[in-house]
Write a structure and sequence with these properties.
With about 230 residues, the chain is of the alpha/beta class. The protein is built from 8 helices and 5 strands, in the order αβαβααβαβαβαα. The protein has a domain of about 160 residues: Rossmann fold. α6 packs parallel to α8. The longest helix has 26 residues. The radius of gyration is 24 Å and the shape is globular.
């Protein structure tokens, strides 16, 4: 006759797994909310002129009035040359100048077009090549206020020795109504926050030698995918 085995192993209380999962979700939610608030704190609500001049100016296409504001900075002498990064391959300097009649003279003397960049990371890579080719040590970066945190992450990683001066463009919708009252604006901010976190994580991994997503714009042109019929790079 066999005797039952005396199972003296400790048993976890019922509901322990459920409590652990709920706690993890709660911590993740609180962390994400805190991160989103920190992200929002970086966004400027008004356009502020750069505190100093730079060697060059880089504007990232994809948002209203970015290029026109960058041209105004160039005309005011804040930089010697301007790079418009993320221009559609079919767009020409004359196409852009027609939309900026007051600054047409600068298009022929002081503006370069980058038609290669497909993303913010690509913008940074092309801006680095442009700055290195002209031996620029400082750049004014022009993009929308909601896009500036991610742009600075990518630009700082691509050119750590270059002084970057942000000029955040504030759109009309941002001025006219609080972001929390507009569902489209809230969706845009949440989407940009996720992209910003992804960029931060990717950059940190690359600092340890782990590159999970090689930038297509840094590959030879013959292997790059066709660009969609849009002027927006990000």
């Amino acid at each position: 006759m066999t005797t039952p085995t005396d199972d003296r192993s400790p048993k976890l209380p019922r509901g322990w797994l459920r409590a652990t999962i709920v706690s993890a979700i709660a911590f993740a939610f609180v962390g994400a909310a805190a991160g989103f608030i920190a992200f929002l704190s970086q966004l400027r609500g008004a356009e502020i002129a750069p505190g100093r001049k730079a060697d060059g100016i880089v504007v990232l296409t994809g948002g209203s009035s970015r290029v026109s504001d960058a041209m105004e900075l160039l005309a005011a002498g804040y930089g010697r040359r301007l790079l418009i990064s993320g221009v559609h391959p079919t767009s020409t300097a004359s196409d852009i100048s027609r939309t900026l009649p007051e600054n047409q003279s600068f298009m022929t003397c002081c503006v370069d077009l980058d038609r290669t960049a497909l993303s913010t990371r690509g913008n940074a890579a092309e801006a680095r090549r442009w700055a290195e080719g002209r031996r620029f040590q400082s750049l004014i970066v022009v993009t929308s206020n909601y896009h500036m945190p991610r742009a600075l992450v990518e630009f700082s990683h691509a050119m750590p020795k270059t002084t970057l001066i942000p000029f955040a463009v504030v759109g009309d919708k941002w001025r006219e109504e609080p972001w929390w009252t507009s569902a489209p604006t809230l969706r845009l901010l949440l989407s940009e926050y996720v992209k910003y976190i992804a960029a931060e994580l990717r950059v940190r991994l690359e600092n340890f030698g782990i590159d999970l997503s090689p930038e297509m714009s840094e590959q030879p042109a013959s292997v790059q995918p066709k660009r969609p019929n849009t002027a927006q790079a990000n």
